[in-house]
From TrEMBL:
Signal peptide: 1-22
Protein name as catalogued: undecaprenyl-diphosphate phosphatase
Signal keyword on record: yes
Coiled coil: none
Keyword Cytoplasm in record: no
EC numbers on record: 3.6.1.27
Keywords of this entry: Signal
InterPro entries on file: PAP2/HPO (IPR000326), PAP2/HPO_sf (IPR036938)
Amino acid sequence: MLKKTSAILTLTLSLMTPVVSAGNLEQSGDVLHLALPLTALSATLLIEDDYQGMWQLAATLASSRVGVEALKYTVDKDRPDGSGNDSFPSGHSADSFAAATFIYRRYGWEYGVPAYVASSYVAYSRVASDKHETSDVLAGAAIGALAGWYFTQPFKGVNITPIAYNGTYGVYVSGQF
């Protein structure tokens, strides 16, 4: 499993290198925004036999997108570049962080950290290309990450879940032994 997942992530990142190095920040963010969910889907279909992860990814991405679109429809916020009034929240950030959280929750930190770095780059590219303000990408990232945390269960191994309830905060750790 680890070899297949590593191969998928390496292939995705190697395909991204020419786009990122071309110097077009907005375009590289756009491509990476699509590459993260596709990488998550590819890893899920190639590694798992029961397709449970595919449905968790679909639920994560769909719920994240529904939340984003509902907010875009109700919140009238102009984009910094003046290209529209659908700035809040950032859909690119939501999609990217939903995929990154799925990858982290499903396959662990060794794959989650690079996915979160890539998601952060997507969010940065949206602000730097004047499509969003920082608050827009932070809200999108939160929506995507929350959807990922809610719908995604680990493929195998240890599950670490933050807990915040009624003034009590902590971490719940469980695993298969």
